[in-house]
Amino acid sequence: MNDSISRATYDQVMIPNYVPADFIPVRGLGSRVWDQEGREYIDFAGGIAVNGLGHCHPELVDALTEQAGKLWHVSNVFTNEPVLRLARRMTELTFAERCFFCNSGAEANEAAFKLARKFASDHFGPEKNEIVACHNAFHGRTLFTVTVGGKYTEGLAPLPGGIQHIVFNDIASLEAAVTDRTCAVVIEPIQGEGGVMPADPAFIQAARDVCDRHDALLIFDEVQCGMGRTGELYAYMYYGVAPDIMTTAKALGGGFPIGGILTTERVAASFGPGTHGSTYGGNPLACAVALRALDIISRPEVLAGVRQRHDRLVAGLVALNGKHGVFKAFRGRGLLLGAVLSDAYAGRAREVVKAAERQGLMLLVAGADVVRMAPALIISEEEIAAGLSRLDAALDDLATTL
Ligand SMILES: *Cc1c(COP(=O)(O)O)cnc(C)c1O
Question: How many angstroms is it from 317 CA to the middle of ligand 1?
């Protein structure tokens, strides 16, 4: 039997819905990753905004191994200590009074949309079922969440109904769409996959107001922009507008799969026994890790550090761009950054990522024209500097191909 694993193995044994990089990471520490050949990479991708505390953070390793020797899983026929500790801490730190845990961002949004429909049906009747979402949104890949997102639904019909899309940051479009039949408006405070687009404060406030006028619930999808990413524990805190339901995942588990919804006691009451569930949801391993991640990320010095690193990274990018002229704008908040390609490089975000990989730097795209960065919230100065100098080399490389 052949024991060796290579990138070619992927094409032989995996369903081809991804196109992973040519190298295979085997080890990570902080914001550095090594591949099978021992080649080192600086990680500005952060596992798509998941590795908020970098790779193998010693406190997360401790939380996981400690729990691994105690109790892995009991199902929701029983509750467990880690899930209750995590929920209690979440309710102390956020607007929320009640939590539900699941295993991914999509599942969190699926639960949020179901809860919004159920709440509207309980209080106002079954006709109040429409969900208003934004163009260029991303809410996950279950059939319901992918339909609410609006893209990636080709070939999947029939799709769930009662979903409308408005123009992100367009208050007139929002106010025209929301009616008494709307059960929920869902917004990413910063659109991640859609190109790292922050919501305008006026748009967020208008969404709160229009939801209140029509007895609709405001849902914030903070799966990507939450958990310290913006320099606030959750992005809604920057806007000073609390949602009725918020979804969280990605950095919540620091790499251990977990998602959750946070809501008020009144809304939570619409999920009575039997209305929703998840066998693994709130599992002790996931919750023990998430509790430790939440403890660390919610520290004021960690959140202040995100804002400082933002300034450092953006200043470095602006300086690099003075030399290369590859980007025409930088957007995003905290350590969720989008570098928008200038017209000469339009559509080539993937090539920038490939060139960076050749120089030992991991980056992300957010569409064809935006290079996205979501490094660890605690990435060191030295790692930022090393990443920027590798990006410099990558952009030199790219210039030779124009
Ligand atoms: C990643 C993401 C999701 C989906 O999360 P999964 O864990 O991949 O299911 C949902 N919403 C937003 C904003 C995301 O960035």
Answer: 27
For residue 107, which atom of ligand 1 is closest to its CA?
9
Q: Can you tell me the mean pLDDT for 175-198?
A: 98
Instruction: pLDDT band for 399, please (50, 70, 90 cuts).
Output: confident
- Cis? peptide before 20, omega within 30° of 0: no
> What does each C-alpha distance from 401 to 187, 302, 344 come to in angstroms?
39, 40, 12
Please provide the distance, in angstroms rounded to a whole number, between the alpha carbons at the two ends of the chain: 45
Residues 96, 301: Cα–Cα separation, whole Å:
23
Distance from C-alpha of 94 to C-alpha of 242, rounded to nearest angstrom: 9
Number of CB atoms found within 10 A of residue 345's CB: 22
CATH number of 71-297: 3.40.640.10
Query: Distance (Å, rounded) from C-alpha 123 to C-alpha 54?
Result: 44
- Closest by CA position to 45, among listed 255, 252, 242: 255
- The residues, ordered by sequence, that sit 6+ positions from 160 with a Cβ below 8 Å of its Cβ are 143, 144, 147
Rounded distance, CA 341 to CA 240, Å? 32
Report the pLDDT value the prediction gives residue 37, as an integer from 0 to 100: 97
Class for the domain spanning 7-57+300-399: alpha beta
Any atom of ligand 1 within 6 Å of the Cβ of 229: no
Measured between alpha carbons, how far is 374 from 52 in angstroms, rounded to an integer?
8
pLDDT, mean of residues 388-399: 96
Residues 6+ apart with CB under 8 A from 131: 113, 116, 117, 148, 162, 163, 164, 182, 183, 184, 185, 186
Ligand 1 pocket test: pick from 168, 223, 230, 364 the residue with the most ligand atoms within 8 Å of its Cβ: 223
Beta bridge partners of 40: 34
Task: Give the start-to-end residue ranges of the domains of the chain.
Answer: 7-57+300-399, 71-297
pTM of the model: 0.98
